[in-house]
Design a protein that fits this description.
Blueprint: H1 15-33, E1 38-39, H2 51-60, E2 62-65, H3 71-86, E3 113-116, H4 128-131, E4 150-155, H5 162-168, H6 171-181, E5 186-195, E6 203-206, E7 225-230, E8 241-242, H7 254-261, E9 270-271, E10 279-283, E11 288-290, E12 299-307, H8 309-312, E13 316-317, E14 325-326, H9 329-349, H10 372-377
Parallel strand pairs: 1-2
Antiparallel strand pairs: 2-10, 3-4, 4-5, 5-12, 6-11, 7-10, 7-12, 8-9, 8-11, 13-14
Helix pairs in contact: 3-5, 5-9
Length: 388
């Protein structure tokens, strides 16, 4: 599959930093491939997700499901991603795209577009996002031909991409969600990440959750997880890195870890290595992050997460993904409609595939036909994201 250019820049010789990084990438890749937490999604004789998968995920805090997305579905996703980036604002803050049309999300109330200065770390070492990124990543020299900003993330992406909505309802992935979180699992949020070659910014080491660290009921799955589907695959150079087992350690002093390491290269971390069509899963309590993408390879990640219902119901939260609000049963039900829309949209595209039965809405599926009226109804749906 030919990769679109999106944004790209001339390669730069980063000298000593690049030499140290290459050695780190090689060591990390070797360790990652030996963990035993990767393979196709497979089942027991009674149709349950195989317990070996759940055990490996619970041990390491991440897993790579190999070969989940077939070539035709990858083509669908690629077309939608390319279209979204072509419809993006011509520059950060613009209301029109490069062709003078109203830009993607220009009429949205919710926060949708996230831009970054090339190779920068805009959040690390700041108090943003509840201060959960306490240490700044190294920012390599920016190429002379680099743009001022690149679009890095589109949130609420189910409203812009039928292909993402259909992938959101992939029956094998939803079975995994139920195996980990229970049959009444609920949505978190969704987005499409692009790490542009030679330009993509870093995401400083962090743990995602912020509401439940002091809860007496805290366990390894309290803050849910994210699926991370890979359009072109990802390597140690442009992919996500995870500290195995850190999701079981509660709130960790990440700044102390970085100080002890003497750089942003945490020796405990390993990369999530994926081929095109693989889908990673990462526990939101695990320490994870990504480096600036100085490589020539693009990474496009189709991201969508889920929670336990009990972790969300009655929680007063927000402030990162949406305004502060109480997550009532009514709000959770309204947000969960996206799963039903996804199941029906997927059934239209893949009629020979057995659809997933989402128990909380099993008696309501006829109300969520996927059509133009539904597309209009889900505008700004991500104002209801369930961030914890």
């Amino acid at each position: 599959m030919a990769k679109p250019e999106f944004y790209t820049a001339a390669q730069v010789d980063y000298g000593e930093h690049e030499s140290a990084m290459q050695a780190y990438l090689e060591r990390g890749t070797e360790r990652a491939m030996g963990l035993g937490n990767r393979g196709p999604i497979h089942y027991t004789d009674d149709g349950s997700v195989h317990p070996d998968i759940v055990a490996a995920y619970n041990e390491h805090g991440f897993y790579v499901f190999e070969g989940v997305i077939n070539a035709s579905e990858l083509d669908d996703i690629e077309r939608d991603v390319v279209d979204m980036w072509e419809r993006a604002p011509a520059t950060k803050g613009a209301q029109e795209d490069k062709q003078g049309r109203p830009a993607l999300a220009s009429d949205c109330e919710a926060r949708v577009l996230s831009w970054v200065r090339p190779l920068s770390d805009p959040i690390g070492g700041t108090t943003l996002n509840h201060g959960r990124h306490p240490a700044k990543m190294i920012e390599p020299e920016v190429p002379d031909d680099a743009p001022e900003h690149v679009l890095q993330l589109v949130l609420g992406s189910l409203q812009f991409s039928d292909a993402h909505l259909r992938l959101y309802a992939h029956p094998d992935l939803l079975r995994v969600a139920a195996a980990i979180l229970g049959d009444d699992f609920v949505p978190f949020n969704e987005g499409i990440w692009v790490k542009h070659p030679g330009l993509g910014g870093s995401v400083a080491w962090h743990q995602d959750g912020w509401t439940h660290w002091e809860s007496p009921d805290l366990d390894e799955n309290t803050h849910g997880f994210n699926f991370m589907a890979q359009l072109y695959g990802c390597s140690a150079a442009n992919g996500l890195w995870v500290v195995p087992g850190s999701h079981r350690q509660g709130k960790v002093d990440i700044k102390a870890m970085v100080t002890a390491a003497g750089s942003d290269r945490l020796p405990q971390a390993v990369p999530m290595i994926c081929a095109p069509g693989d889908v990673g899963i990462c526990n939101r309590q695990a320490i994870h992050g990504s480096f600036a993408n100085t490589s020539p390879d693009i990474r496009v990640t189709i991201n969508f997460g889920f929670h336990r219902r009990q972790s969300v119901l009655g929680v007063q939260s927000g402030g990162i993904h949406n305004p502060v609000a109480e997550y009532t049963a009514e709000r959770i039900h309204e947000r969960a409609k996206m799963i039903a829309y996804g199941i029906n949209a997927r059934s239209e595209r893949f009629p020979d595939e057995a659809p997933y039965v989402y128990e909380p809405l099993a008696g309501e599926m006829e109300a969520y036909a996927w059509n133009d009226a539904a597309r209009a109804a889900i505008k700004d749906y991500n104002l209801l994201d369930l961030g914890i």
